[in-house]
Amino acid sequence: MKLKAYAAVTHQGPHLETNEDGYDFDLDQQFFFVLDGFGGTGIGDRAVGRLKEDLKVFLSQLADDQDATMPLYWSPRWLLEGNALVNAMLNAHQVLFKENSKKGLNQRAGASAACAIKADDILVLSQVGGCQAFLARHGHVEPLFLPDTHQHLSVDPHGPSALKAPAGGFGFFPELTWSMREVRIQDGDQFIFLTEGIAPWLTPLELAHALSRAGEDAHHKLNGLLKLSNSRGNTANQTGMILEF
Prior knowledge:
5-stranded antiparallel sheet, Phosphatase 2c, domain 1, 26% helix, globular, single chain, alpha+beta
């Protein structure tokens, strides 16, 4: 199954001057990811830049030396590409966590992520922290993961914005917490990766409506999602990516 179209956008949001989000992809190796950084100006944005580099370098080794992708983790449950993706995430996490351990709390950085790597007609997806991934198929949109945020750990009604904060992420704790799924791709499928500045503000039904608009390419659809989330009260950085098969 071939990738027919893709698009990605990132923006600092309606109020912030620094963008701590980011995205990257490699069409030859068929991997894609969005990152939602946190830590502040000059901290979170730099961490996201380092994570992007570490993830891409590690995953690129798959083409040249398959054994090089398996030093930290291996499970027969996942395809080779899925194991490579987990190892890339674990390696990037260890580098960032080691750097953070040398700094004071107010100088530490982290990031959430939604990642994917394609293996023939299967897309292997992984999620860390508060980023979210969705599958749009036959006019319906379903979340592929529950975000790892305080929303599922607390019922405090007085801090709704705090409930959206990630409970884990790259660089924070000694062990990286991640989720993974394999999805067999069907013709017409759309996969959407969104950071905190978009995903929590929209329902799956609204996503389905936005993605099904005739005459709009993937880039215009993403810009529409940014505007809609801002109209609902978003104040965070925003990044989204769409893969259309």
